[in-house]
Amino acid sequence: MVIDKSTLLQNFQLQMPTGYHRESLGRLAHLESLKLREAAVLIGFVEREQGLQVILTKRAEHLKHHPGQISFPGGKFEDDDQVLVNTALREAEEEIGIHQTD
């Protein structure tokens, strides 16, 4: 599916998330036995002549979790990230070379 930039902008509000608090995960306390981990992905778009395209990656076949699957670039939260937006940006740089200034 190809979508043009104006349609995307009309249907989605593109802005940095605000008000995220790690403490808000308390509402998920009943899921503690599942060993949930904070993580984030980057849903990146590339503008081409035919429209916007979404950036996807293919996970390596040797990985323990989700080997060979198609995914958004992303990964687990690290304390140095401070917020999940930084997690997504860091992982995108590590996995596909997109720098935060790009």
Automatic annotation (TrEMBL):
Its cofactor is Mg(2+); Mn(2+). InterPro entries: CoAse (IPR045121), NUDIX_hydrolase-like_dom_sf (IPR015797), NUDIX_hydrolase_dom (IPR000086). It comes from Vibrio harveyi (Beneckea harveyi). Keywords: Hydrolase, Magnesium, Manganese, Metal-binding. Residues 35-102 form the Nudix hydrolase domain. PANTHER family: MITOCHONDRIAL COENZYME A DIPHOSPHATASE NUDT8, NUDIX HYDROLASE. One of its GO terms (molecular function) is metal ion binding. Transmembrane segments: none annotated. It comes from the Bacteria. This is NUDIX domain protein.
